[in-house]
């Protein structure tokens, strides 16, 4: 055997060993090829992102920014009021011209269109292009935040992908605690810091009645758990907080569970540099007032601001250790930019996965055996060549799935079967070209050389068109469609290698040029 054949055989053996090892289960990796939701069981959720929440938050922060800049420019701080999610009004103090506020708005609020109302106030409406951008970014942010939360819980191979209509599809294969995971995903964790107005009360109406009439439209009333000196819950009380949100969870850098004054779990947080600046401005300008820490429209605590605070603080509440850990995880992975509404929720049992695997494997084995018999009967000795290439193709396909941590789904099994059929088709094209060359009277070696050379262009052409289709399915598909595309892409790549390289090496070993073979079993 010459050196040219030796290195080719060595390469084939190396590929075979590497990919065989990749699919062998070990203690550290008992499941080399991860199974998808339809094979393993788990939870399937479809959620809608309420993008209006993010637009409303942007509007609130824009109105706060205008007020802050007015103070820095020695202008009277105007009264602002949000009209809807994307619009707010600015009413300058009596006798103050709106010209200076218009100048500030042009410099600091480029995302808003400005106009005057009939009563002389300034109206700021967010530009449609900016609303579209916020909505798109909100969905992308929500996908990334959910992914961070799921990854932190150790869920393997989750599928989290956006769909049309502001929807997100979430598939969680083999979750140990579906209820807990779903709660963590759904929790918006919109952390907000808002100034308290008036005093707390036993119900919403009593809190509103204690405020001046003009102030009642400028506040939201949220519940809080009343606690005694030992931290025990003794009931519910309500606080009125300003509607504007000067500092939110997007300004948060980190959150960790700590021990409180009585050893109870609390959540310590730290701010980003920009968040620390805003938090410092908020607390520095409101010393002596109460600041509510609002999480998902519930007040966790409302401490009095004793001094300027810039970069860190504590969220206190009646937390158990697990609740505190889950809440810090949610805050650490990022607050959702908008709330989620569950549109669809279902649990796939593992029995369905076992049935799917059994039926899929049975169909694959029957089809594989039938394919081998047909090839051997029709091509005789050369059919063994095709069978060897086919087996190596399957090993490479499964091994590459294990290497790339691809998820095997039921459509993925269909993709494997289709790939094996196309691999045989490649061998058939080569064999038929060799037969044609033999009919024209060429020698065995010449027929082999010409058969492989002339079939190459045709096979590459058919494989490339299918690969392009599979790439589109992978890019724009979700869930099972992606699983089908992954196996198809890997299998087609392996098919080209086995059909040309492996099959040619086998022919070269059996029908050596120096032996001048006279017959070919095909």
Please, could you describe this protein's structure?
The protein has 14 helices and 19 strands. The relative contact order is 0.12. The strands form five sheets. Strands 9, 10, 11, 12, 15 and 16 form a six-stranded antiparallel β-sheet that branches. A four-stranded antiparallel β-sheet has the order 7-8-2-18. It has a four-stranded antiparallel β-sheet with strand order 3-4-6-5. The protein has three domains: 3-35 and 351-515, Multidrug efflux transporter AcrB transmembrane fold, CATH 1.20.1640; 56-129, Eukaryotic phosphomannomutase, cap domain (Hypothetical Protein, Haloacid Dehalogenase-like Hydrolase, Chain: A, domain 2, 2-Layer Sandwich), CATH 3.30.1240.20; 187-345, Gyrase A, domain 2 (2-Layer Sandwich), CATH 3.30.1360.200. It is 51% helix and 22% strand. It has helices at residues 3-22, 37-40, 52-72, 99-108, 128-152, 178-186, 204-209, 273-284, 321-332, 350-379, 381-403, 410-439, 444-476, 480-510; strands at residues 34-35, 42-49, 79-84, 87-91, 112-116, 122-126, 159-163, 167-173, 191-201, 219-227, 233-242, 247-248, 252-259, 265-271, 291-295, 298-301, 312-315, 340-348, 407-408. By secondary structure, the protein is an alpha+beta fold.
């Amino acid at each position: 055997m010459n050196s040219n054949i030796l290195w080719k055989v060595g390469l084939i053996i190396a590929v075979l060993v590497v990919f065989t090892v990749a699919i062998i289960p070990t203690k550290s990796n008992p499941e080399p090829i991860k199974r998808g939701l339809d094979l393993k069981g788990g939870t399937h959720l479809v959620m809608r992102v309420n993008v209006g929440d993010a637009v409303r938050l942007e509007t609130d922060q824009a109105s706060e920014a205008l007020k802050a800049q007015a103070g820095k420019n020695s202008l009277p701080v105007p009264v602002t009021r949000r009209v809807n999610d994307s619009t707010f009004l600015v009413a300058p103090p009596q006798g103050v011209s709106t010209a200076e506020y218009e100048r500030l708005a042009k410099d600091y609020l480029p995302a808003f269109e400005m106009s005057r109302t009939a009563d002389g106030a300034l109206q700021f409406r967010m530009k449609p292009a900016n609303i579209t951008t916020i909505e798109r970014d909100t969905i992308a942010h929500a996908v990334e935040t959910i992914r961070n939360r799921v990854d932190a819980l150790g869920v393997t191979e989750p599928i989290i992908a956006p769909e049309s209509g502001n929807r997100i599809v979430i598939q969680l294969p083999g979750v140990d605690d579906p209820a807990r995971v779903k709660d963590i995903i759904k929790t918006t964790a919109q952390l907000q810091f808002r100034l308290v107005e008036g005093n707390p009360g036993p119900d919403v109406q009593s809190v509103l009645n204690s405020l001046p009439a003009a102030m009642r439209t400028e506040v939201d009333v949220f519940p809080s758990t009343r606690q005694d000196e030992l931290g025990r819950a003794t009931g519910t009380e309500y606080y009125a907080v300003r509607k504007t949100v000067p500092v939110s969870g997007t300004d948060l850098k980190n959150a960790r569970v700590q021990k409180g004054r009585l050893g109870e779990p609390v959540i310590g947080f730290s701010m980003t540099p920009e968040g620390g600046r805003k938090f410092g401005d908020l607390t520095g300008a409101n010393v002596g007032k109460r600041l509510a820490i609002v999480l998902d429209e519930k007040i966790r605590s409302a401490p009095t601001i004793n001094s300027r605070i810039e970069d860190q603080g504590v969220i206190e509440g009646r937390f158990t250790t697990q609740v505190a850990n889950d809440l810090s995880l949610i805050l650490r992975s990022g607050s959702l930019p908008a709330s989620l509404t569950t549109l669809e929720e279902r649990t796939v049992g593992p029995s369905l996965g076992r049935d799917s695997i059994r039926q899929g494997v049975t169909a694959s084995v029957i089809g594989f055996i039938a394919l081998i018999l047909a090839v051997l009967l029709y091509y005789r000795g050369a059919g063994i060549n095709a069978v060897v290439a086919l087996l190596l193709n399957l090993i490479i396909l499964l091994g590459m799935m294990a290497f790339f941590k691809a998820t095997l789904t039921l459509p993925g099994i269909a993709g494997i079967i289709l790939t094996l059929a196309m691999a045989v088709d490649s061998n058939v094209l080569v064999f038929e070209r060799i037969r044609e060359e033999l009919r024209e009277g060429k020698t065995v070696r010449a027929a082999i050389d010409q058969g492989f050379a002339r079939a190459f262009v045709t096979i590459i052409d058919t494989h490339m068109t299918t690969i392009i289709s599979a790439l589109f399915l992978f890019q724009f598909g979700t869930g099972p469609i992606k699983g089908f595309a992954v196996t198809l892409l890997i299998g087609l790549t392996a098919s080209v290698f086995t059909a040309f390289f492996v099959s040619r090496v086998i022919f070269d070993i059996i029908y050596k040029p120096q032996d001048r073979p006279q017959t070919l079993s095909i």
